[in-house]
Amino acid sequence: MCGIAGFISRFPLPDERCHGILERQNDLQRHRGPDGRGTWISPGRRAGLSHVRLSIIDLKTGGQPMGIESGNVIVFNGEIYNFIELRRELGEAQFHTTSDTEVILRAYEKWGEACVDRLRGMFAFALWDARAQKLFIGRDRFGIKPFYYLLEKDVFFFASEIKALLPFQASTRVSLDGLRDYFTFQFCLGSRTLFEGIQQLQPAHVGLVDRDLNLTLRKYWEVHYDLDWHHTERYFIERLRQEFFDSIEVHLRSDVEVGAYLSGGLDSSLVASVARDSRPNGRFQAFTGKFSLSDSFDESRYARVLTDSKGMTLHEIDVTERDFVEQMPKVIYHLDQPVAGPGSFPQYMVSKRVREHLKVVLGGQGGDEIFGGYTRYLIAYFEQCIKGAIDGTLHSGKFVVTYESIIPNLATLQNYKPLLQEFWAQGIFDSRDQRYFRLVNRSNTFGDIVDWSIFNGSSSFEDFKTIYWGKNVGQESYFDSMTHFDFKTLLPALLQVEDRMSMAHGIESRVPFLDHEVVELAATIPANIKFENGELKRLVKVAFADKIPPEILNRKDKMGFPVPLQVWMNRPGVVRDFILDLFRSARARQRFYLGKGFDVERLMRQEPRFGRNLWAFLSLELWQRQFFDEPVK
């Protein structure tokens, strides 16, 4: 796990300029790699690579940039979990290190660009092909590891984090397309970012940058929802257990101790439980965060249930109002751009504690998108069931669940009445894509607090439909269309949070659910097995019931690490003062995206318990201050 960066230039650059670029990039990403740093400049001074290292595999000889006899050189961020098997296939004799980095170099020598098809893990890399004088770039299938790039004045720059590109951009501007996506989803779609001119290499893509800075991109992997109607539930359970256990085993490969994040929910509990069973001897450390404000914001009791039953050491991090005020600017700085919800703040705090004990932790990210864990799926199906009952098509085979069977699971919706009220306020029984767009579209709640005229009437709906109706998804399954959209969009946003909040403190976060063999299997399982009777993540619960304590397995109140922001900001205290001071300043009131109806005190009063409007504007304001008012140079 590291930070990578570099450049390729149309013309040779002065030696001082080359070194200046690479050292500045390393300085801005030094938190990603506190264990070492290095740079490399090509003989013609037209390309350079920089690297900061967090040592996990091959602590002695795994330094980067790394080159081999052919003159090819690589910088790599991530972990290749099947590097041992690939070494054997490629031939042990030619290797000079025991690192997974050298495996990519040797694999490229043998298989060319197709080497990525054989990599199992999380990765972002840039490989200089000395013979072809081209830069080969690649990113893992799910976007676990980041890769951003910028073309500016005859130079192509790239880095793990946007902040390492900003000093080389002539002017820093907000992308209106990215901002429109942010107000709609709280993340950007496709290759967009919130910075004009800076893009991200999309997950499951590789690219070639030639001497003339032409960038050619290619998607090398896709998840196909080719449903397997021939096998039974028992078959899928056995296959899922086999693949998941294998994923945990390879994710535990490390030359340093591995622990786990633990939220008290199903996914992180399952990951930690299986990992502990795989390593039953010695210490296994788990980390959970909580807000002691009330039980409504404290799930640590569920984490203790698991750690007590498995003999783990549990570290509990009590997050406070003062932490919020002191750390939120740092959270936004490390995120590079606002994304997703308030969960980034407590994850930052937990990761800070992890670094005091460990370098590597496992997490449960991905389970909701793969197996259907979001409450909005149940809301969408509830409406479809009502529509089917009215239309007389309920039992025609078009529905995964019936309204009779879904009723016992509706208790899950207890905390979502405001969302239900907003969702059913208009457009009820519209087409599936329109209705799911309403469920994920957060811009409906903003009204005149945003100046919508800056977007010239453009909408994110057409981009949404392109992803929702992907050719790799059968159009008959509402469940698969919903989970696929979240898998392609929300998941990369959450993985940005996962990467930045862990790497802010120099720790590596691994996500075993996002093993491509697990994902490919899950995509073939019919929705009537994964989502029978509207039970969220039903198949995971059935398949791994022996690994999870009943108190966790049968929960219907999972909160997703909620932040008590609404409580804090509506009572006297440091959080309320912090927010009011920010938005009462002249520069905050003059942001170009604010509408005439923006009133921070009214927004604070009207924010529902788990609302995100205030969070969205607070994040944007902190972002504006750090990256525009005082730009990174």
Q: Given the helix and strand composition, which structural class is it?
A: alpha+beta
For the largest sheet, list the strands in their spatial order: 2-3-1-9-8-10
First-residue to last-residue Cα separation: 25 Å
The number of distinct structural domains comes to 4
CATH class division of the largest domain: Alpha Beta
| Average of pLDDT | 93
Please mark out the parts with pLDDT under 50 across 5 or more consecutive residues, or reply none: none
Shape: globular
Number of helical regions = 26
Give helix % range.
40-55%
Instruction: Provide the gyration radius in Å.
Output: 24 Å
Q: What's the count of strands? A: 17
Describe the overall structure.
This protein is α+β, with helices and mostly antiparallel strands and 633 residues long. The protein has four domains: 2-219, 4-Layer Sandwich (Glutamine Phosphoribosylpyrophosphate, subunit 1, domain 1); 233-371 and 491-553, HUPs (Rossmann fold), CATH 3.40.50; 375-488, no CATH class; 565-629, no CATH class. It is built from 26 helices and 17 strands. A six-stranded antiparallel β-sheet has the order 2-3-1-9-8-10, with helices on one face. Helix 2 packs across helix 3 (100-111) and helix 8 crosses helix 9. The chain starts with a strand and ends with a helix. The mean pLDDT is 93.
Give a nutshell description of this structure.
This protein has 633 residues and is of the alpha+beta class. It contains 26 helices and 17 strands.
